[in-house]
Amino acid sequence: MKKSDRKNKKKASSGGELNAQGADNFKQPVPAADNPEDLTSHLTELRSRIINCLIFFCIVLAAALYFSDVIMAFFGERVSSVLKGEKLVFISPAEAFFVSIQMSLYSALIISAPYILYQFWAFVYIALDEKEKKNFRSILIFSTLCFYAGCAFAVFVAIPVGIGFLIGYSGAIFKPMISVSAYFDFLVYTSLTFGIVFELPLLMVFLSLVGAVAPKMYSTGRKYAILIIFIIAGIFSPPDVISQFIVAIPMLFLYETGIIVIKLSGIKA
């Protein structure tokens, strides 16, 4: 056999092997990320979880609307002692009705929040590794508890103190007549604000994780943090020592909680 024939035969055989390998590679299954069926299943699961959230929210909202009088009375009692027996007023025929619906929606959203967050967590749970699952679960539980603690503090402490100061500021000149709409707008805004403020420990942990603030700085700079906290409390609280402490003490507690959480998490500089 000639050399040229041998070369041609080798090329043909090598080409056949490459074609066979290419065919085998072509026959390999498509990765899960690029599989249309897998994408469809994820979208189906997402849709079912959204529907579950809507159904749960509607059920809670229906219950909140049914007990709207109880909800209005509960939140109204927080200001009754400050008004010294005076009741909230409404200046338009439909004001009390629409405020009742607004507070029912607000209550249903607050009550449904943990279930909605759980559905979100369950959807992304599969895509996380073990460490991420543990961290995500801890963050979810911790942030929810902090938010509820902030809302409770606002309703039971901050709002009565704030309204008492604002009413007493001009009580000798004007007669306070707080409308239902104005009071509940103030209540919703203040409770949501304190709910966000109570996420301070979580913010401290995040800043330490990304390296923006060294964990040791929270402990070494504690005296400066206390000074800043009391300055902020003095600005946003009535001008008396008791009210200032009422606002400053929870912030100090949150600051110390953040330091403890950082130490327990083992975050290092």
Strand-helix topology:
Blueprint lengths: L2 H25 L8 H31 L1 H13 L14 H30 L5 H40 L10 H18 L2 H10 L5 H6 L1 H15 L4 H25 L4
Helix pairs in contact: 2-4, 3-4, 4-5, 4-6, 5-6, 7-10, 9-10
Helix-strand category? mainly alpha
Quote the beta fraction: under 5%
The mean pLDDT is 78
**Which regions are unreliable across 5 or more consecutive residues at pLDDT < 50?**
16-33
Broad shape: flat
Give the total of beta strands: 0
Query: Span from first to last CA?
Result: 74 Å
- Determine Rg (CA atoms, Å): 30 Å
Q: Roughly what percent helix?
A: over 70%
Outline:
By secondary structure, the protein is mainly α. The chain is built from ten helices and no strands.
Walk me through what this model shows.
- This protein is mainly alpha-helical.
- Helices cover 79% and strands 0% of the residues.
- It is built from 10 helices and no strands.
List keywords for this structure.
269 residues; single chain; mainly alpha; flat
